[in-house]
Write a structure and sequence with these properties.
single chain, about 250 residues, alpha/beta, eight-stranded mixed β-sheet
Length: about 250
């Protein structure tokens, strides 16, 4: 099993955690923290995930954390999926959510007046989705949905494979209805095609006293807790995941 962080191969989970920049682990409230804790034993988690998705986990597999997909038209930043699981048969794009607020819609991101470069960038993502699903969406169909969902969906359509999933991994159920609504709506827009599916993985963790202390330190104004967060991830002492639910959209 190959593990990469932004296309750089790492030896194991410990090396993966060590490879994240301090700013990425500075806050214990970032979704990266429970995501890494959850995937500390990737083989076990993969078997659970594939059982839910109906995939065979055997064969060569790659775990790409912060998987980059460049914009296809126009000029802009790449889309970095939190975790992309790749095989020759399937791809699963996993987006982690913990304490994040609601995201900017396509309509708001495009701006008023409309910006020509952003129109081009959006068109590039739409064409990727069309390549992966055979369905051509319009900007008007997507305008009320989060822009991030559009380019994460496009990212799932980037690697060459037969079957694709976009899975939002929620570490809190506070915004469950929000994510379910938008994933369901985009799936409906794709008009019943069978190449791309959507799901929600819900696993609110039990947090340790150590994690509560880290949140208190953050609330008190300390803005670089990366050393303590890193140690907690490596020791497995921040979270316990005892309740995991998969919701197929």
């Amino acid at each position: 099993m190959l593990i990469k962080l932004r296309e750089q191969t790492v030896a194991d989970f410990c090396s993966l955690v060590a490879s994240y920049a301090s700013k990425e682990l500075a806050s214990p409230k970032r979704s990266t923290v429970p995501l890494l804790a959850y995937w500390a034993n990737p083989e076990d988690r993969l078997r659970e995930l594939c059982a839910n998705l109906g995939f065979d986990p055997s064969g060569p597999l790659e775990f790409h954390f912060e998987f980059p997909v460049p914009v296809q038209h126009g000029v802009g930043k790449a889309s970095f999926t939190d975790l992309m699981v790749l095989s020759t048969k399937f791809v699963v794009a996993i987006e982690a959510k913990y304490t994040e607020p609601a995201y900017e819609t396509v309509r708001k991101w495009l701006g008023n007046p409309l910006r020509s470069n952003r129109i081009a960038v959006l068109d590039g993502w739409i064409k990727l989705i069309e390549r992966g699903t055979g369905v051509r969406l319009s900007p008007a169909e997507l305008d009320r949905h989060p822009y991030q969902l559009v380019h994460r969906t496009a990212s799932a359509c980037f690697p060459p494979t037969a079957q694709r999933w976009v899975v939002y991994h929620l570490f809190s159920d506070d915004r469950l209805s929000y994510y379910k609504e938008h994933l369901s709506a985009v799936f409906h827009l794709l008009r019943g095609q069978t190449k791309l599916s959507f799901g929600l993985l819900l696993s609110p963790p039990e947090v340790s006293a150590e994690y509560v202390r880290l949140k208190s330190l953050w609330a008190s104004g300390q803005r670089d807790l990366s050393g303590l967060v890193r140690n907690g991830l490596l020791s497995g002492s921040l979270f316990k995941f005892s309740c995991v639910q998969f919701i197929c959209i």
